[in-house]
């Protein structure tokens, strides 16, 4: 049973609040929502912020591209690996203390990263930042689901989802502005400032809540989940860089797969005492919500892999302007996330999710059909807007479906599962759509290199940015090489987008057939209407 600044109540099988529990008033609930969203924004901004400073990091630390990628990816790796265990610990020992501790760790680590003078210190600081983020991220959503009454929970989750979805783009824009205006070290000022605000608001307004459990903490499940996530995320991050058949990639795949099988087997044995009761994936809500988030976040991440080179290499825009160009998509996503709960209340979560998936797929198809070098930004803007609306409509009911499937005493785990799904989707989308883009580019440019000297031609095959950099070595063919690279990139873009359309079409059919049927916002441990099912 949750405790909100009140003595612990004895567990109630119905999951209803005890009569003596203090329920925050409307003003405090608004403050709580702002506090957890500010904390979430600090975490989300740090996921993507360093991407805009890769050249600066390479110069500052005299680091290879591989090392720079590790500085960026080690944060995501530690974050994803620790979400489930730390979410469960927060449920048991108190969500407010876990949130405060996470903010402190995250803030200190961000300050160390901003002041780092060596690669080793930077990597350690980023690793510690991921630990702090894993303490923060699941708790922010768990605070909402354990504090807000059922009738307001959907709207609050919609706001949280909008920040989680659009916050990354906003963070990239602010990061790009700081890099252009000052230096890459100022990238860490933004998360530190957000942490300070979140700490003050959490201390003042966020109630503590923790759950009693009759079972010992599932240490084996926690450890196997960490190994599984580390192994599989490592494969997705390093496969494109090292090669999918490289020894390190294959070892990561084998270790991750064995640990994942071991985790599922162990959790089935533990049943009600499990860290994550995997039997719940038989329910439409948990399975449908998880699969939808995995695919939608994968497609979103893959879109960014395609859009940034298009803006910078094809259109010749700066990093700041390229990030600004994504803002309409982020705004539509955040607006649609706020609209989704009301739409779900009217037409149901399954129809809302399906509508969002259909719009997102249509946006992908629109971009694939009309994108061109000469069409510029206007050839992709309509598809971006449709994608933003579609993702916003699908993410909020998917998140609600996941949190509603687990009982109130496991909301930290439910929130962590939601976050792990997002991280896996992101890594998967970057790896797969990025690979499709690269393969399509290489295939298209080969037929356009007639007459180009061998050296620049070989360089051009490596990527569009490489081709533009080598164009001055091609003599009279310089302009032709640049144009060939840009057109080949657009061809690769279309391959990746049509693959995304196929994936979204499959997801649309799945959600129509197996999407959640119960009303959103009805947790598994609260009474459901008589006609609700969890097939």
Radius of gyration: 23 Å
- H/I helix tally: 18
Give the proportion of residues in helices: over 70%
CATH architecture tag of the largest domain: Up-down Bundle
CATH topology of the largest domain: Growth Hormone, Chain: A
Give, in order, the helices and strands.
HHHHHHHHHHHHHHHHHH
Secondary structure elements and pairings:
Layout (H helix, E strand, L loop, with lengths): L25 H23 L5 H7 L4 H29 L1 H21 L3 H29 L2 H32 L7 H17 L13 H24 L4 H24 L13 H31 L4 H7 L1 H21 L1 H22 L10 H25 L5 H36 L7 H7 L3 H7 L7 H37 L21
Helix pairs in contact: 1-5, 1-6, 1-7, 3-4, 3-5, 3-8, 3-15, 4-5, 4-7, 5-6, 5-15, 6-11, 6-12, 6-14, 8-9, 8-15, 10-11, 10-14, 10-15, 10-18, 12-13, 12-14, 13-14, 13-18, 14-15, 15-18, 16-17, 17-18
Report on this model:
By secondary structure, this protein is mostly helical. It has three domains: 25-208, Growth Hormone, Chain: A (Up-down Bundle), CATH 1.20.1250.20; 219-274, no CATH class; 277-517, Growth Hormone, Chain: A, CATH 1.20.1250.20. Helices cover 75% and strands 0% of the residues. It has 18 helices and no strands. It starts with 25 loop residues before the first helix and ends in a 21-residue tail after the last helix. The model is unreliable at 1-21 and 520-535 (pLDDT under 50). GO terms for molecular function: transmembrane transporter activity. One of its GO terms (cellular component) is plasma membrane. Residues 1-21 are annotated as: Disordered.
